[in-house]
Design a protein that fits this description.
single chain; mainly alpha; two-stranded antiparallel ribbon; 9 helices
């Protein structure tokens, strides 16, 4: 997952710091820097072609988001992942994602309905396959469509952060998760509710989808 630099960042230094953050976060989320890995500043500067200041700014943001742990007189480490993290993150995500879906349903227009129809066609095309990676990529497109259609930048920012935390957990267990045909049906039902402008149903469908998928991940994590 790649997050676009904030529009509020307009100077060169800010753009470099934002790129440093995105690069380092993606290394952590995709487990190329696994939980417990010490972050060596000099090595990262060399490997990523970053200066000390943007790298430190990136680390500060990642610490706030719970992806790194800065320990005085010890160093900086990628945080560990616990089963309780899955539960706690899912509890928050389920509510915020449901709210985003309700708002999106109220704010649908012709362009967004067309985009929803295109996503539905892609979901139909992937139905019955066993490619978890392909499904995850499409699942993210659906979620981002909802977040953006909701039209609330503060909600979008909160969901971006929760998604990064969730995605790292998913990468840990994806090879243990069976195909998820039910998740495709859930997403199609969600899109149908959005197109219909049914905020109550859209919120309920999104909450059920998040909770069901997190239950699958928790079960795989516990094996």
């Amino acid at each position: 997952m790649t997050r676009q630099p904030s529009k509020a960042v307009t100077n060169g230094r800010g753009l470099i710091a934002d790129r440093a953050y995105v690069t380092l976060r993606d290394l952590i989320v995709t487990l190329r820097l696994p939980p417990g890995t010490p972050l060596r500043e000099d090595a990262l500067m060399t490997d990523l072609g970053l200066g000390r200041t943007p790298l430190r700014e990136a680390v500060k943001r990642l610490e706030i988001e719970g992806l790194v742990d800065v320990r005085p007189r010890s160093g900086t480490y990628v945080t560990d992942v616990q089963a309780t993290d899955i539960v706690h993150i899912a509890e928050v995500r389920a509510e915020l994602e449901a709210q985003a879906a309700r708002l999106a349903a109220k704010r649908m227009d012709d362009e967004r309905r067309a985009a929803a129809a295109a996503l539905d066609a892609d979901l139909r095309a992937i139905e019955g396959t066993t490619s978890i990676g392909a499904y995850m990529a499409l699942d993210e497109r659906v979620h981002r469509f909802v977040w953006e259609a909701a039209g609330n930048p503060y909600l979008l920012d909160a969901l971006e952060r929760l998604w990064a935390l969730s995605l790292r957990i998913w990468h840990l267990v994806l090879e243990r998760v069976a195909a998820l045909p039910a998740a495709v049906d859930e997403q199609r039902a969600l899109l149908d509710a959005l197109v219909a402008g049914d905020a109550r149903r859209a919120g309920a469908r999104m909450r059920e989808h998040v909770q069901a998928f997190e239950a699958e991940i928790l079960d795989a994590f516990s094996r």
